[in-house]
Every structure is written in structure tokens, then in C-alpha cells.
Amino acid sequence: MTQESLQEPSGDGSRSLIDRAFTILGTFYGGRVRQSLSDISRRSGLPIATCHRIVGRLTEWGALERDTDGNYNIGLRLWEVASLAPRSVGLQRLARPYMQDLYETTGYASHLAIREGLELVSIERFQSPRRQVRRPQVGKRYPLHATAIGLVLLANAPDEVRAQVLAGELEAFTPRTFTDPVVLDRLLDDIRHTGYAVSDRQVDDVHIGVAAPVRGADKTVVAAVSLALTEQDVDGKNMIHLVRLTAASISRALDNAGFGRAES
User: Fold this and answer.
1) Is the pTM above the cut of 0.90?
2) Beta carbons within 10 angstroms of residue 104's beta carbon
3) Among 38, 26, 89, residue whose Cα is nearest residue 63
4) 27: left (phi over 0), alpha (psi -120 to 50) or beta
5) CATH number among 3.40.50.300, 1.20.120.290, 1.10.10.10, 3.10.310.70, domain 4-81
6) Tens of pLDDT along 96-105?
7) Residue 197: is its pLDDT beyond 50?
């Protein structure tokens, strides 16, 4: 395939067909499981005729599937390709039994996330039926500074990542959110030292998060696991203990599987 064949002579400039296809696939982030062609056009910012043409190609290949109502969802072939990504799917598979055990033991939502750039990406969640707000959404990105799981990932991130986050906008989701970079920097040092983080109603006015790092076979932090509590949960110390035990169990499973070990 030549470079010319990837370019479309449309009014949208020199954006390639591949760029537009990625933009279209990106509209399915954030829990948008099914979308109409109009939804895709609106969220991608592409003309509906362009969407129709590219969505048709993606459907032919199997990246998208069209249901009987004419709506589109991610296709099986794209899921098959995604299953080859060890960082998220392999980690998710190994962590699931321990996360489920944590959820069933406590009755509260357990969550697994990785860091991608300056954000966290949710890759697994066991949701408590007592929790009305269904958050975080698997596959969605969130800031690192406002949740326990994000704080753990940020505390164990490379120095340049921490510096970029601290130098950027620290959005206040509640009055309790850490927005002072000096205070946050000290907190991150404490989290790295103690091996866990607590976020007390910093992302909403109800939930308290407890999180601990998950390490790969090379002992670097590859993910974090958390539990979402409420202020009525008085046994906070025991919850911290359970989260740390879960993180350690997942870390052992990753070590046994060689997850994160450099190829020799």
C-alpha cells in the first residue's frame, strides 16, 4: 500500500485514512459500547459520509460489527488483536481472581489500573451493588492526582512523569483534592515509602479510596489495585491490610508468570 493510497482528497486536509480510522475507534472509549453512525460522526468530528466509508471498511475487516438496529460496536477481530497486548489484558487475566476475592471479602468495589503517560487507565473493576455511581469505567482515562490508585501510580512513576504532573493543572474535584504541588510532592514521597495510599473524598464527596502498588517480575510497579469505601467504614486499617495483601498476591502471580521480566 502506498502513501498516496492512505490519503483522502477531502476538505479535511491531509489527515490519512489511518488517522481517521483511529479517531473513529477512539469514539468507543469511555463505556460507549454501541453507537449509531451519527454518534460516531458527531464524536469524531468527521463528516458523516467519511464516517460511512471508513466504518464500512472497519466493519469488513472485523474491527467493528453492525447489529440489527444499525448500531456499531467493537468487533471480535479487534478484541482478538487486543488480547495479544500483555500489559493490560495479560495483567487483567492474572489479577482477576485476587480482585474478585477482595471484592467478595469486603463487599466493596475493587479496581485495577495502569499508568499511561500522565493519566491512569482503568483495566478491571468489580463493582459493588451498593455503589450508585458506576465509576471508574474500564478502558477510560483519569487524572493521577485525585484518587488513591492514581496517587500510587504517580508515586512510583519516573521522576520526569511526576515533575510533569506537578507542573501541570491539578484539577480540584472536591475541596479535599490535592492541588498544591509542594504538598502533593511530599505526599507522593510518603506513599512510596509506606507502600499504600488513601484518598479521602478527593474525587467525590462520598468515597474513600485505599490503594497499593502491583509489581512485575522485575519488581517495578506495573499497576495498582484499590478498594472504594465510604466514611461509614470504620475498619479502615483492616481494609488497607487487605488491599496490600491483594496487591502482593497479584505481584506474586505476575512474578510466577514472568510478567514484566525483560527478555534475555
Assistant:
1) no
2) 10
3) 26
4) alpha
5) 1.10.10.10
6) 999 999 999 9
7) yes
Q: Which residue has the cell 463528516?
A: 47
CA atoms 136, 144, 152, 180: torsion sign: negative
Measured distance CA(161)–CA(211) in Å, rounded: 19
pLDDT grade for 11, boundaries at 50, 70 and 90: very low
Cβ pair 101, 247 in contact under 8 A: no
pLDDT at 139: 72
**Who contacts 205 (Cβ-Cβ below 8 Å, separation ≥6)?**
174
pLDDT, one tens digit per residue, over 61-97 is 999 999 888 999 888 788 767 656 656 667 888 999 9
Query: Do residues 180 and 191 make contact, with C-beta atoms less than 8 angstroms apart?
Result: no
Alpha-helix runs per DSSP H in 146-235: 148-155, 159-167, 181-194
One-letter amino acid for residue 207 of the chain: H
